[in-house]
Fold these 3 entries.
Entry 1:
Amino acid sequence: MKIIGIFLALTVIYASLGVYGFAQDGGSDGGDIYQLGNKQIVIPPPQGFVEAASQIPIIRERLDGGAAGGNDFLAAHVPAEHFQRLKKGELFDLTFYTKVTVSKKLKTFNAAEADFALFVDTFKKSFPALSDPNSKEMKAVLKSVSENLSNLNKTETTLTLSQPLTVGSIEDSRNAYGIVILFQVKAIIGGKEIVRTLVNGISAVRVKEKIIFIYTYKAYEKEPDIAALQQFSKQWLNRIIAANSNAK
């Protein structure tokens, strides 16, 4: 249950930081390799995306700065054209991006298929209650994120979320599970209100006996955005699984 709670909490944190991180601040195609315990995990970028957090400090600061301490940040990807703009110093809201994290408690744990199955089962049962914006757990998360963003933005920042609506499935197999949710996030930054609607892919994948968390985010403008993110997320999950199946 603690791992499930961390998973959901960090989903909220990353959505909030990613969307509002830039507005207030007037590897190779084969993927990068990460050492998780006794295993080396390959994280290839999605097609047309670039791993940006290791190359642009402000991206890592904004996407990782609100972490509650339960997860380790591994990677963040943005479209190649956005990456070039960011490299030039442009600052703007991220409207399409990804994140990859791993639970600190699971980093050195070799998870069997049965462990992953238990994780998924618990997630399915717990998600409605834990994702409720009025729940004790979510209120604590939002308070923490708001405080962190206030420090980063150097002005008082408050976040609120709508109840997420599950709008699709990404994967449900023995080594991968993911859903697509739709929700609205409202930020009050220095007295100015900003409202965004996001499509968010939340996934977990087991590769080389390690469980990693995969997040995809896209600003929602119209209904086809849901199917687009769903397909994008599924293709990327398959790419990650294939990269680690072939890697030694």
Entry 2:
Amino acid sequence: MAKAKTVKKVANKTPAAAKPTKNIFASIEPLPTDAWRLSTIDPKIASSEQAAQLLGLGYPRMFLTTPGDFAGTDEQLRTLALNTRIIPRDALKRVYTVYTYPDLNSDDLPRAASELLDFSGNHFAMYALECLYGAAATATAIVDRLESIPVEHWSDEGSDGERFYDVGGRAIEGLGFVLWRVPAKPRAALRARLEKLFVKRSSASNSKPMAALDHLLHGRAGWERGYGGKALDMSSLLLIDDDPKFVADQVLAKLKTQSPRDRPLFDVQLGVIGGPKVIAALRDSTSKFPGDQKKSIAAQLSLCR
């Protein structure tokens, strides 16, 4: 007679509870409540009231601040900025220098705005100025400088070694994000000044700075003129504020073929603009982004339902 098989009993194991995600935003300083873009965001996409405010202000296209200073190295400060966008307030001037040049400083706002447009174009340096001086003052200083740049520098490098032709477009894109956080009335006035400037500099219509200004001011139409209708980089879609369906279609199509080798930059604002389907697709596609963005991606997605 065959022996009956012994059935090994396996104890029922309750899955270990997931460790709660640390709220990295718990100690940030108060956020502005009068920013233009706050009135345009659907709070239903956010995981909390604070998350709705952060998404509405444009996180991660901004810096947040905490009290105190930062004692680490410049490289550690860069890592902090990249992973969280949260900077100790007393380290903001250092951040500006780290992301521009060692001999530049942020003590004088008009001069710092000129340096951004003429030498750097770096968004993180611009966000540091915004935290130091406020969104409206920073945007105004940049527009003041744009109006003073000679027309020849909009179309070529000029004779004085100006780099505006090369880096100005990047700075103008950053200005678009700062304008999200300017109150409605001064924002409208600044955009009206930029529209006049766009007309005055029309002779340089094929230049990188003019393409960026067209994109900032004219949404999808400006984007199509500047990018030829192709979203080579999804980040280029962020200033299209007049056609969310178009943004959603572009992002969803791009995510299907994207891989980490493309070095794409994760940005939850694509979902804020494109809607819940884009947020879900971004959440499902995190493996298609480079591994060194893991902490930043987790911070951004923690803000969404």
Entry 3:
Amino acid sequence: MTMQQHSWRQSALSAAFDDLVERIVALQDTWTCEREVSGFTYAFGDTRHHVCTAIAWLESRATRGYDQADEAARLVAHEAFLAAMALGELIRRAEDNCWADPIAIDGARIAIDALLDELAPYVSRADAGLREVMLEDVPLETVLGRLAIA
């Protein structure tokens, strides 16, 4: 009996998550705010849980995007997206309040953006709009107007 070899290729979503993990570890090493460390640890754990679930769910079913996804795939993508946005908001607060090394914060922020970009095809336009409001400083009225037109 011969064993077939399968080439393994990491997905863009998995690669974005791996990069985020590395950046968060680097950020944790420079974190200075004792008051916010438990929230940071919780937000990262929540993001890790939901993104790992989304990777397993979306990749095992070869989900191609929001319009083709079933309800379960949409739900796991939505939960991962919201968890990553919450972590992104905490990273923004860390930047605003100088809670960690600026280079580590910048790396984590870039990694969150990349992860959200990879999850974006699997979430609704409303979720994408929420990202714009929370993390990109787009006015709520602008996003609501765009959602009402489409």
